[in-house]
Design a protein that fits this description.
It comes from Chryseobacterium gilvum. This is Lipocalin-like domain-containing protein. The protein has one domain (9-149). 0% of the residues lie in helices and 51% in strands. It has no helices and nine strands.
Amino acid sequence: MNNELTPYIGTYRTSYQGNEITLFITKQENKLEKSTGETYYMDALIVKYIVKNSTGTILQDTQSMNLGDQSYFNIVSMGTLPSRGSVALYYDGTNCGIGWGDIYLKKLNATQISWEYRPDDSLIDSATCPQSTDKTVYLPVMKDLIFTKQ
């Protein structure tokens, strides 16, 4: 409603602890959602990303993944928070769901957004997550990180 999500659409970039993070934010209209026996449609922001280290090596890339078809790596908006002037998103986490939690984006101006990532935790064991699996969360866990529109 009221085109609240449209200003977030675009490609944004920042540097954090020697890594370059690029967000690709799109809007999906009438996205099918299912929750506690309820089915409904909503407009949602979909975030894909690439994280590169200081030498340009890609650490994680979800840009070419068909994210809705898998249970991890999805970052999808849950709704707007008018009192905070931000959008709340849910992150499924990386491999084995590690790092799942909430992300908040706030539009600062025409070219910048503020990022806040609050990961939750869960117990991981070798039965649910093989030892050889990359368990690193590459997204920046912090508040007020500024991304600039490209």
